Amino acid sequence: MEKDTKRGTESNADTRRGTGRFQERMPQAVGRAGSRARTAVRGLGSALATPTGPGEPLFARAASPWLRWLPYAVAFALVSALLPVTITVLTQSYHVHGAIAGALGTAQTAPLLLAVTRPLQAWWVIFAADVAGGFVLLVPDYDGALPTPWTPMVVVGYLFLMLALGLRESRRALLGVWLSTGVAGAVFEIVSADRPGTGVIVLLFVLSGVVLLLTSTLRSRGDAERRLVEQENISEAERGRRTLLEERARIARELHDVVAHHMSVITVQADSAPYRIPDLPEAAREEFTSIAGAARESLAEMRRLLVVLRSDGTEGERAPQPGLDRVQQLVEAAVRAGVPAELSLAADLGELPPAVDLSGYRIVQEALANVIRHAPGAATRVSVRRDTAGQLNVLVVNGPAAERVSAPVEGGSGTGHGLIGMRERVRLTGGSLDTGPLPDGGFRVAARLPLNGPNSPTDQKDAP
Protein backbone atom coordinates (compact mmCIF):
# COMPACT_ATOMS: atom_id res chain seq x y z
CA MET A 1 0.00 0.00 0.00
CA GLU A 2 2.82 2.34 0.86
CA LYS A 3 4.50 1.47 -2.42
CA ASP A 4 1.35 2.29 -4.36
CA THR A 5 1.03 5.59 -2.51
CA LYS A 6 4.66 6.45 -3.18
CA ARG A 7 4.27 5.49 -6.82
CA GLY A 8 1.19 7.67 -7.11
CA THR A 9 2.99 10.60 -5.50
CA GLU A 10 5.89 10.26 -7.94
CA SER A 11 3.43 10.06 -10.84
CA ASN A 12 1.73 13.27 -9.70
CA ALA A 13 5.12 14.97 -9.35
CA ASP A 14 6.08 13.91 -12.87
CA THR A 15 2.76 15.21 -14.14
CA ARG A 16 3.32 18.56 -12.42
CA ARG A 17 6.86 18.81 -13.83
CA GLY A 18 5.59 17.98 -17.32
CA THR A 19 2.85 20.57 -16.97
CA GLY A 20 5.38 23.13 -15.77
CA ARG A 21 7.68 22.48 -18.72
CA PHE A 22 4.71 22.76 -21.10
CA GLN A 23 3.68 26.05 -19.53
CA GLU A 24 7.24 27.34 -19.86
CA ARG A 25 7.62 26.28 -23.49
CA MET A 26 4.18 27.36 -24.62
CA PRO A 27 4.91 31.13 -24.55
CA GLN A 28 8.20 30.53 -26.34
CA ALA A 29 6.48 28.54 -29.08
CA VAL A 30 3.77 31.17 -29.40
CA GLY A 31 6.42 33.89 -29.57
CA ARG A 32 8.33 32.04 -32.31
CA ALA A 33 5.13 31.48 -34.28
CA GLY A 34 4.23 35.15 -33.92
CA SER A 35 7.69 36.19 -35.04
CA ARG A 36 7.47 33.98 -38.12
CA ALA A 37 4.01 35.35 -38.91
CA ARG A 38 5.24 38.95 -38.60
CA THR A 39 8.21 38.15 -40.83
CA ALA A 40 5.90 36.61 -43.43
CA VAL A 41 3.58 39.62 -43.37
CA ARG A 42 6.49 42.04 -43.73
CA GLY A 43 7.85 39.98 -46.61
CA LEU A 44 4.46 40.01 -48.35
CA GLY A 45 4.16 43.77 -47.86
CA SER A 46 7.64 44.29 -49.27
CA ALA A 47 6.81 42.09 -52.27
CA LEU A 48 3.61 44.05 -52.93
CA ALA A 49 5.53 47.33 -52.81
CA THR A 50 8.35 46.13 -55.08
CA PRO A 51 7.76 47.12 -58.71
CA THR A 52 7.61 44.28 -61.22
CA GLY A 53 9.66 44.83 -64.34
CA PRO A 54 8.51 44.03 -67.89
CA GLY A 55 8.48 40.30 -68.52
CA GLU A 56 8.97 39.46 -64.83
CA PRO A 57 6.45 37.35 -62.88
CA LEU A 58 4.69 38.92 -59.93
CA PHE A 59 6.84 38.96 -56.77
CA ALA A 60 9.86 37.98 -58.89
CA ARG A 61 12.15 40.19 -56.75
CA ALA A 62 10.94 38.83 -53.41
CA ALA A 63 13.67 37.47 -51.15
CA SER A 64 11.72 34.43 -49.98
CA PRO A 65 11.20 31.53 -52.44
CA TRP A 66 7.69 30.86 -51.17
CA LEU A 67 6.72 34.45 -51.93
CA ARG A 68 7.99 34.10 -55.49
CA TRP A 69 5.80 31.02 -55.97
CA LEU A 70 2.77 32.49 -54.17
CA PRO A 71 1.19 34.18 -57.28
CA TYR A 72 1.38 30.91 -59.22
CA ALA A 73 -0.22 29.00 -56.33
CA VAL A 74 -3.03 31.54 -55.95
CA ALA A 75 -3.72 31.62 -59.70
CA PHE A 76 -3.76 27.82 -59.91
CA ALA A 77 -6.09 27.58 -56.90
CA LEU A 78 -8.47 30.14 -58.40
CA VAL A 79 -8.59 28.38 -61.77
CA SER A 80 -9.09 25.00 -60.10
CA ALA A 81 -11.98 26.36 -58.03
CA LEU A 82 -13.63 28.79 -60.45
CA LEU A 83 -13.56 26.71 -63.64
CA PRO A 84 -15.85 23.84 -62.54
CA VAL A 85 -18.03 26.15 -60.46
CA THR A 86 -18.50 28.53 -63.40
CA ILE A 87 -19.48 25.76 -65.78
CA THR A 88 -21.87 24.24 -63.24
CA VAL A 89 -23.55 27.54 -62.38
CA LEU A 90 -23.91 28.57 -66.02
CA THR A 91 -25.55 25.28 -67.00
CA GLN A 92 -27.77 24.75 -63.96
CA SER A 93 -28.65 28.24 -62.74
CA TYR A 94 -28.40 30.31 -65.91
CA HIS A 95 -29.60 27.48 -68.24
CA VAL A 96 -26.69 27.98 -70.67
CA HIS A 97 -25.90 25.20 -73.12
CA GLY A 98 -23.15 22.87 -71.84
CA ALA A 99 -20.71 23.49 -74.69
CA ILE A 100 -21.13 27.27 -74.47
CA ALA A 101 -20.80 27.15 -70.67
CA GLY A 102 -17.58 25.14 -70.95
CA ALA A 103 -16.09 27.58 -73.47
CA LEU A 104 -17.11 30.61 -71.41
CA GLY A 105 -15.88 29.09 -68.14
CA THR A 106 -12.50 28.23 -69.66
CA ALA A 107 -12.06 31.66 -71.27
CA GLN A 108 -13.05 33.48 -68.07
CA THR A 109 -10.80 31.53 -65.67
CA ALA A 110 -7.86 29.82 -67.43
CA PRO A 111 -6.13 33.10 -68.47
CA LEU A 112 -5.67 33.86 -64.76
CA LEU A 113 -2.56 31.66 -64.99
CA LEU A 114 -1.23 34.02 -67.66
CA ALA A 115 -1.90 37.02 -65.40
CA VAL A 116 1.11 36.12 -63.25
CA THR A 117 3.51 37.09 -66.04
CA ARG A 118 1.38 39.00 -68.62
CA PRO A 119 -1.66 40.46 -66.85
CA LEU A 120 -2.62 42.92 -69.60
CA GLN A 121 -2.79 40.17 -72.24
CA ALA A 122 -4.80 38.03 -69.81
CA TRP A 123 -7.19 40.94 -69.25
CA TRP A 124 -7.96 41.22 -72.97
CA VAL A 125 -9.00 37.55 -73.07
CA ILE A 126 -10.96 37.57 -69.82
CA PHE A 127 -12.66 40.91 -70.53
CA ALA A 128 -13.79 39.71 -73.94
CA ALA A 129 -15.04 36.44 -72.41
CA ASP A 130 -16.89 38.31 -69.64
CA VAL A 131 -18.60 40.60 -72.14
CA ALA A 132 -19.55 37.64 -74.31
CA GLY A 133 -20.85 35.82 -71.24
CA GLY A 134 -22.90 38.86 -70.27
CA PHE A 135 -24.71 38.79 -73.61
CA VAL A 136 -25.22 35.03 -73.35
CA LEU A 137 -26.95 35.53 -70.02
CA LEU A 138 -29.58 37.74 -71.67
CA VAL A 139 -31.81 34.71 -72.18
CA PRO A 140 -35.61 34.83 -72.05
CA ASP A 141 -36.00 31.90 -69.61
CA TYR A 142 -33.64 33.30 -66.96
CA ASP A 143 -35.50 33.52 -63.65
CA GLY A 144 -33.39 36.33 -62.09
CA ALA A 145 -32.17 34.33 -59.09
CA LEU A 146 -28.51 35.31 -59.74
CA PRO A 147 -27.00 38.65 -60.76
CA THR A 148 -26.26 39.59 -64.37
CA PRO A 149 -24.29 40.27 -66.49
CA TRP A 150 -21.38 39.38 -64.15
CA THR A 151 -21.60 36.16 -62.22
CA PRO A 152 -20.01 35.90 -58.72
CA MET A 153 -17.19 33.81 -60.23
CA VAL A 154 -16.50 36.58 -62.75
CA VAL A 155 -16.23 39.14 -59.92
CA VAL A 156 -13.74 37.01 -57.95
CA GLY A 157 -11.51 36.27 -60.95
CA TYR A 158 -11.69 39.86 -62.20
CA LEU A 159 -10.55 41.27 -58.86
CA PHE A 160 -7.49 38.97 -58.84
CA LEU A 161 -6.79 40.15 -62.37
CA MET A 162 -7.00 43.77 -61.20
CA LEU A 163 -4.50 42.98 -58.46
CA ALA A 164 -2.04 41.60 -61.00
CA LEU A 165 -2.58 44.57 -63.30
CA GLY A 166 -2.11 47.12 -60.54
CA LEU A 167 1.25 45.61 -59.56
CA ARG A 168 2.55 45.59 -63.11
CA GLU A 169 1.07 48.07 -65.59
CA SER A 170 1.31 51.83 -65.90
CA ARG A 171 -1.33 54.18 -64.54
CA ARG A 172 -2.50 55.01 -68.06
CA ALA A 173 -3.14 51.34 -68.77
CA LEU A 174 -4.91 50.90 -65.44
CA LEU A 175 -7.15 53.87 -66.15
CA GLY A 176 -8.02 52.42 -69.55
CA VAL A 177 -8.88 49.04 -68.01
CA TRP A 178 -11.07 50.63 -65.36
CA LEU A 179 -12.91 52.86 -67.84
CA SER A 180 -13.43 49.90 -70.18
CA THR A 181 -14.98 47.99 -67.29
CA GLY A 182 -17.26 50.92 -66.57
CA VAL A 183 -18.28 51.34 -70.21
CA ALA A 184 -19.11 47.65 -70.55
CA GLY A 185 -21.13 47.81 -67.33
CA ALA A 186 -22.99 50.91 -68.56
CA VAL A 187 -23.91 49.15 -71.81
CA PHE A 188 -25.32 46.16 -69.94
CA GLU A 189 -27.11 48.51 -67.55
CA ILE A 190 -28.90 50.08 -70.51
CA VAL A 191 -29.65 46.78 -72.25
CA SER A 192 -30.90 44.98 -69.15
CA ALA A 193 -32.42 47.87 -67.22
CA ASP A 194 -35.64 45.94 -66.66
CA ARG A 195 -33.86 42.85 -65.27
CA PRO A 196 -33.17 42.30 -61.55
CA GLY A 197 -29.71 41.67 -60.12
CA THR A 198 -27.85 44.32 -62.16
CA GLY A 199 -26.35 45.96 -59.04
CA VAL A 200 -23.30 43.76 -59.53
CA ILE A 201 -22.28 46.13 -62.34
CA VAL A 202 -21.71 49.00 -59.90
CA LEU A 203 -20.13 46.62 -57.38
CA LEU A 204 -17.53 45.34 -59.85
CA PHE A 205 -16.79 48.85 -61.13
CA VAL A 206 -16.18 50.20 -57.60
CA LEU A 207 -14.21 47.21 -56.32
CA SER A 208 -12.00 47.05 -59.39
CA GLY A 209 -11.22 50.75 -59.03
CA VAL A 210 -10.34 50.35 -55.35
CA VAL A 211 -8.03 47.39 -56.05
CA LEU A 212 -6.34 49.18 -58.92
CA LEU A 213 -5.86 52.32 -56.83
CA LEU A 214 -4.41 50.48 -53.82
CA THR A 215 -2.03 48.28 -55.79
CA SER A 216 -0.92 51.16 -58.00
CA THR A 217 -0.23 53.27 -54.91
CA LEU A 218 1.79 50.48 -53.32
CA ARG A 219 3.78 50.00 -56.49
CA SER A 220 4.38 53.73 -56.90
CA ARG A 221 5.59 54.01 -53.33
CA GLY A 222 7.93 51.06 -53.76
CA ASP A 223 9.22 52.49 -57.02
CA ALA A 224 9.89 55.84 -55.34
CA GLU A 225 11.73 54.15 -52.46
CA ARG A 226 13.81 52.12 -54.91
CA ARG A 227 14.78 55.24 -56.87
CA LEU A 228 15.64 57.00 -53.59
CA VAL A 229 17.93 54.13 -52.58
CA GLU A 230 19.58 54.16 -55.98
CA GLN A 231 20.09 57.91 -55.75
CA GLU A 232 21.57 57.55 -52.26
CA ASN A 233 23.95 54.87 -53.53
CA ILE A 234 24.99 57.11 -56.41
CA SER A 235 25.47 60.04 -54.03
CA GLU A 236 27.51 57.88 -51.67
CA ALA A 237 29.69 56.72 -54.55
CA GLU A 238 30.15 60.30 -55.70
CA ARG A 239 31.06 61.40 -52.17
CA GLY A 240 33.61 58.60 -51.96
CA ARG A 241 35.05 59.52 -55.34
CA ARG A 242 35.22 63.20 -54.38
CA THR A 243 36.92 62.33 -51.08
CA LEU A 244 39.45 60.18 -52.91
CA LEU A 245 40.23 62.95 -55.40
CA GLU A 246 40.56 65.51 -52.62
CA GLU A 247 42.96 63.26 -50.75
CA ARG A 248 45.06 62.65 -53.85
CA ALA A 249 45.21 66.39 -54.46
CA ARG A 250 46.25 66.94 -50.85
CA ILE A 251 49.04 64.36 -51.16
CA ALA A 252 50.18 65.92 -54.43
CA ARG A 253 50.39 69.33 -52.78
CA GLU A 254 52.42 67.91 -49.92
CA LEU A 255 54.81 66.13 -52.28
CA HIS A 256 55.34 69.35 -54.20
CA ASP A 257 57.88 70.50 -51.61
CA VAL A 258 59.76 67.21 -51.80
CA VAL A 259 60.02 67.22 -55.57
CA ALA A 260 60.73 70.96 -55.69
CA HIS A 261 63.66 70.46 -53.31
CA HIS A 262 65.24 67.87 -55.59
CA MET A 263 64.68 70.00 -58.67
CA SER A 264 66.24 73.00 -56.91
CA VAL A 265 69.29 70.92 -56.05
CA ILE A 266 69.60 69.87 -59.71
CA THR A 267 69.38 73.52 -60.79
CA VAL A 268 72.03 74.69 -58.33
CA GLN A 269 74.40 71.86 -59.22
CA ALA A 270 73.98 72.44 -62.94
CA ASP A 271 74.54 76.20 -62.58
CA SER A 272 77.61 75.83 -60.35
CA ALA A 273 79.24 72.98 -62.25
CA PRO A 274 81.30 75.26 -64.58
CA TYR A 275 82.73 77.02 -61.51
CA ARG A 276 83.37 73.90 -59.45
CA ILE A 277 84.95 71.81 -62.19
CA PRO A 278 88.09 73.36 -63.77
CA ASP A 279 88.89 73.05 -67.46
CA LEU A 280 85.32 72.01 -68.28
CA PRO A 281 84.82 71.61 -72.06
CA GLU A 282 82.51 74.07 -73.77
CA ALA A 283 80.12 71.30 -74.77
CA ALA A 284 79.81 70.23 -71.15
CA ARG A 285 79.18 73.84 -70.09
CA GLU A 286 76.36 74.09 -72.62
CA GLU A 287 74.95 70.78 -71.42
CA PHE A 288 74.91 71.92 -67.79
CA THR A 289 73.29 75.19 -68.86
CA SER A 290 70.61 73.24 -70.70
CA ILE A 291 70.02 71.02 -67.65
CA ALA A 292 69.67 74.07 -65.39
CA GLY A 293 67.20 75.68 -67.81
CA ALA A 294 65.11 72.52 -68.02
CA ALA A 295 65.07 72.26 -64.22
CA ARG A 296 63.88 75.87 -63.90
CA GLU A 297 61.10 75.23 -66.43
CA SER A 298 60.08 72.11 -64.49
CA LEU A 299 59.91 74.12 -61.27
CA ALA A 300 57.75 76.74 -62.97
CA GLU A 301 55.39 74.06 -64.32
CA MET A 302 55.17 72.46 -60.90
CA ARG A 303 54.18 75.80 -59.38
CA ARG A 304 51.42 76.15 -61.99
CA LEU A 305 50.28 72.61 -61.21
CA LEU A 306 50.21 73.41 -57.53
CA VAL A 307 47.95 76.39 -58.22
CA VAL A 308 45.53 74.03 -60.01
CA LEU A 309 45.60 71.47 -57.18
CA ARG A 310 45.18 74.05 -54.43
CA SER A 311 41.62 74.45 -53.21
CA ASP A 312 39.85 77.77 -53.65
CA GLY A 313 40.53 80.18 -50.83
CA THR A 314 43.60 78.33 -49.50
CA GLU A 315 47.06 79.71 -49.38
CA GLY A 316 50.25 77.92 -50.17
CA GLU A 317 51.96 76.14 -47.30
CA ARG A 318 55.20 77.83 -46.31
CA ALA A 319 56.28 75.43 -43.56
CA PRO A 320 58.46 72.44 -44.55
CA GLN A 321 56.75 69.06 -44.72
CA PRO A 322 57.09 66.99 -41.52
CA GLY A 323 58.76 63.62 -41.18
CA LEU A 324 59.10 60.74 -38.75
CA ASP A 325 61.45 62.79 -36.57
CA ARG A 326 58.32 64.59 -35.36
CA VAL A 327 56.30 61.48 -34.44
CA GLN A 328 57.19 62.04 -30.79
CA GLN A 329 55.26 65.32 -30.92
CA LEU A 330 52.19 63.52 -32.29
CA VAL A 331 52.26 61.00 -29.45
CA GLU A 332 52.65 63.74 -26.86
CA ALA A 333 49.68 65.61 -28.36
CA ALA A 334 47.59 62.41 -28.18
CA VAL A 335 48.53 61.98 -24.52
CA ARG A 336 47.45 65.54 -23.81
CA ALA A 337 44.12 64.72 -25.54
CA GLY A 338 43.50 61.90 -23.04
CA VAL A 339 44.88 58.93 -25.00
CA PRO A 340 47.48 56.88 -23.08
CA ALA A 341 49.83 56.35 -26.03
CA GLU A 342 53.27 54.74 -26.10
CA LEU A 343 55.89 55.18 -28.81
CA SER A 344 58.50 52.71 -29.96
CA LEU A 345 60.71 54.53 -32.47
CA ALA A 346 63.78 52.70 -33.76
CA ALA A 347 66.99 54.68 -33.56
CA ASP A 348 68.47 53.09 -36.70
CA LEU A 349 65.96 54.23 -39.26
CA GLY A 350 68.72 55.85 -41.30
CA GLU A 351 68.07 58.21 -44.16
CA LEU A 352 64.56 57.73 -45.51
CA PRO A 353 63.20 58.71 -48.93
CA PRO A 354 61.25 61.97 -48.54
CA ALA A 355 57.97 60.42 -49.77
CA VAL A 356 58.28 57.51 -47.32
CA ASP A 357 59.24 59.84 -44.47
CA LEU A 358 56.22 62.07 -45.10
CA SER A 359 53.82 59.14 -45.67
CA GLY A 360 54.90 57.42 -42.44
CA TYR A 361 54.32 60.61 -40.45
CA ARG A 362 50.87 61.18 -41.99
CA ILE A 363 49.79 57.57 -41.38
CA VAL A 364 50.66 57.87 -37.68
CA GLN A 365 48.93 61.25 -37.56
CA GLU A 366 45.70 59.93 -39.12
CA ALA A 367 45.69 56.78 -36.97
CA LEU A 368 46.09 58.75 -33.74
CA ALA A 369 43.42 61.23 -34.87
CA ASN A 370 41.02 58.33 -35.44
CA VAL A 371 41.74 56.98 -31.95
CA ILE A 372 41.00 60.38 -30.39
CA ARG A 373 37.73 60.68 -32.37
CA HIS A 374 36.36 57.14 -32.14
CA ALA A 375 38.06 55.52 -29.12
CA PRO A 376 38.87 58.23 -26.57
CA GLY A 377 40.92 57.01 -23.65
CA ALA A 378 41.95 53.79 -25.39
CA ALA A 379 45.46 52.50 -24.69
CA THR A 380 47.46 52.98 -27.89
CA ARG A 381 50.82 51.70 -29.05
CA VAL A 382 52.79 53.28 -31.90
CA SER A 383 55.75 51.46 -33.42
CA VAL A 384 58.03 52.64 -36.25
CA ARG A 385 60.97 50.46 -37.27
CA ARG A 386 62.93 49.28 -40.25
CA ASP A 387 63.06 45.56 -41.10
CA THR A 388 65.71 43.49 -42.82
CA ALA A 389 63.73 43.37 -46.06
CA GLY A 390 64.30 47.07 -46.69
CA GLN A 391 60.85 48.21 -45.61
CA LEU A 392 59.59 50.70 -43.05
CA ASN A 393 56.98 49.19 -40.73
CA VAL A 394 54.48 51.59 -39.18
CA LEU A 395 52.12 50.05 -36.60
CA VAL A 396 49.40 51.78 -34.59
CA VAL A 397 47.28 49.56 -32.34
CA ASN A 398 44.64 50.79 -29.90
CA GLY A 399 42.47 48.95 -27.43
CA PRO A 400 38.75 49.46 -26.82
CA ALA A 401 37.47 52.88 -25.85
CA ALA A 402 37.61 53.68 -22.16
CA GLU A 403 33.96 54.67 -22.30
CA ARG A 404 31.09 54.16 -24.72
CA VAL A 405 31.12 56.69 -27.53
CA SER A 406 27.74 57.77 -28.92
CA ALA A 407 29.22 60.27 -31.36
CA PRO A 408 32.71 60.97 -32.69
CA VAL A 409 34.77 63.06 -30.31
CA GLU A 410 36.03 66.32 -31.69
CA GLY A 411 39.78 66.59 -31.76
CA GLY A 412 42.78 65.09 -33.41
CA SER A 413 45.12 66.62 -35.89
CA GLY A 414 44.45 64.46 -38.93
CA THR A 415 44.74 66.21 -42.26
CA GLY A 416 43.24 63.61 -44.57
CA HIS A 417 40.19 61.35 -44.74
CA GLY A 418 41.14 58.47 -42.43
CA LEU A 419 41.66 55.12 -44.11
CA ILE A 420 41.29 56.66 -47.56
CA GLY A 421 44.25 58.95 -46.95
CA MET A 422 46.33 56.12 -45.53
CA ARG A 423 45.53 53.89 -48.47
CA GLU A 424 46.51 56.55 -50.98
CA ARG A 425 49.79 57.32 -49.21
CA VAL A 426 50.72 53.63 -49.06
CA ARG A 427 49.79 53.26 -52.71
CA LEU A 428 52.04 56.21 -53.53
CA THR A 429 55.09 54.40 -52.17
CA GLY A 430 54.13 50.96 -53.53
CA GLY A 431 53.63 49.48 -50.07
CA SER A 432 50.82 47.58 -48.38
CA LEU A 433 48.24 48.48 -45.75
CA ASP A 434 46.49 46.18 -43.28
CA THR A 435 43.70 47.68 -41.19
CA GLY A 436 40.85 46.17 -39.24
CA PRO A 437 39.14 45.70 -35.87
CA LEU A 438 40.60 43.49 -33.15
CA PRO A 439 38.72 40.85 -31.13
CA ASP A 440 38.89 42.94 -27.95
CA GLY A 441 37.17 45.91 -29.63
CA GLY A 442 40.31 47.79 -30.60
CA PHE A 443 41.69 48.65 -34.02
CA ARG A 444 44.94 47.99 -35.85
CA VAL A 445 46.72 49.95 -38.59
CA ALA A 446 49.83 48.35 -40.09
CA ALA A 447 51.65 49.87 -43.07
CA ARG A 448 54.73 48.53 -44.88
CA LEU A 449 56.51 51.15 -46.96
CA PRO A 450 59.39 50.06 -49.22
CA LEU A 451 62.56 52.14 -48.90
CA ASN A 452 63.96 51.30 -52.32
CA GLY A 453 61.29 52.95 -54.46
CA PRO A 454 57.75 51.87 -55.37
CA ASN A 455 57.21 48.17 -55.92
CA SER A 456 54.53 46.50 -57.93
CA PRO A 457 51.11 47.01 -56.38
CA THR A 458 50.33 44.49 -53.70
CA ASP A 459 47.06 43.25 -52.34
CA GLN A 460 45.65 45.55 -49.73
CA LYS A 461 43.34 44.52 -46.99
CA ASP A 462 41.32 47.44 -45.72
CA ALA A 463 38.62 47.63 -43.21
CA PRO A 464 35.24 48.77 -44.46
Features:
alpha+beta, 11 helices, 464 residues, 7% strand, elongated, five-stranded mixed sheet
3D structure, described in words:
- It is a single chain.
- Helices cover 62% and strands 7% of the residues.
- It contains eleven helices and five strands; from the N terminus they run αααααααααβαββαββ.
- It has a five-stranded mixed beta sheet, covered by helices on one side.
- With 464 residues, the chain is an alpha+beta fold.
- α3 (98-109) packs antiparallel against α4, α9 packs parallel to α10 (354-374) and α10 (354-374) runs antiparallel to α11.
- The chain has helices spanning 2-49, 65-92, 98-109, 119-136, 152-166, 171-191, 200-276, 282-309, 327-336, 354-374, 419-429, and strands at 341-345, 380-386, 391-398, 432-437, 443-450.
**What is the typical, i.e. mean, pLDDT?**
77
- Low-pLDDT segments, ≥5 res: 406-416, 455-464
Shape: elongated
Strand order of the largest sheet: 1-2-3-5-4
* String of helices and strands: HHHHHHHHHEHEEHEE
Total beta strand runs? 5
Main beta-sheet strand count, sense and barrel state: 5 strands, mixed
- Measured by DSSP, the beta-strand proportion falls in 5-15%
**Rg from alpha-carbon coordinates:** 40 Å
Figure out the total of helices: 11
**End-to-end separation:** 75 Å
Structural class: alpha+beta
Helix content: 55-70%
